[in-house]
Amino acid sequence: MLIPLRPGELERLIPAVATGPQFNACSREPRMLLQRVLISVIGGVLTLLISQTLLFSSKLGPVMLVVGVVFLLYLLWGPILEAGQRNATLRRYPAAAIFEGRVADLFTRELVESRREQANRDGRLELVEDKRTWLCLELEDEEGYLGQLRFPFEKRHQTIRRGMVVRTLVLSERRDFSRIGAITDGWLPQLKEWVGEYPYLLRPAFEELCLRRLR
Q1: How remote is the C-alpha of 177 from its chain's centroid?
Q2: How far apart are CA 165 and CA 189, in angstroms?
Q3: Closest CA to 27 of 83, 72, 84
Q4: Does the pTM exceed 0.90?
Q5: What is the DSSP letter of 32?
Q6: Residue 94: CA count within 13 A, CB half-sphere
Q7: Rounded Cα distance, 178 and 76, in Å
Q8: Model confidence over 92-144: pLDDT tens digits?
């Protein structure tokens, strides 16, 4: 069942500015965290050194000082920028609707999150893969298959069963939703549990909207 959103509701559910859960999600990703640390340290140190050289000999000195501070604070504003970009990607869709269906199937899958070379006992380099178990939920309603929700598997997810009600937000380039462009995180009301790879939605607002629109 798809219930199209009214004007303004999408902007309320997916804000332009990063929420607390979105900031935390963007801050925890190891690869991006390492990248931000390198940018912050290298960019900050270089620009601060340049600013000290130019501080009394050029008008660019104070500007470079400010730039250096901005670089050093990249660990803070980097996740905010990334979350805002993710939100903007979904907010651009012209059509959005609440989906209420069920979990048609679920299964786990091992996904490689990173690869690195490491020396073994013999001193030879070997490829080491860091894997993580993900849970995949196949979603459907009376009209058939909708799509899939994937997220890292945790112990609390063991209670999810086939046939459970799931509510999520679907987005499309087409007003008739003949082609689904994106699916947000999902709400399992029977378990009072949220699932998904990334917390796109303002969750209390979505729960409240579902109570009003799905009576």
Answers
A1: 23
A2: 7
A3: 83
A4: no
A5: H
A6: 6
A7: 40
A8: 999 999 999 999 999 999 887 766 677 767 767 777 767 889 999 999 988 88
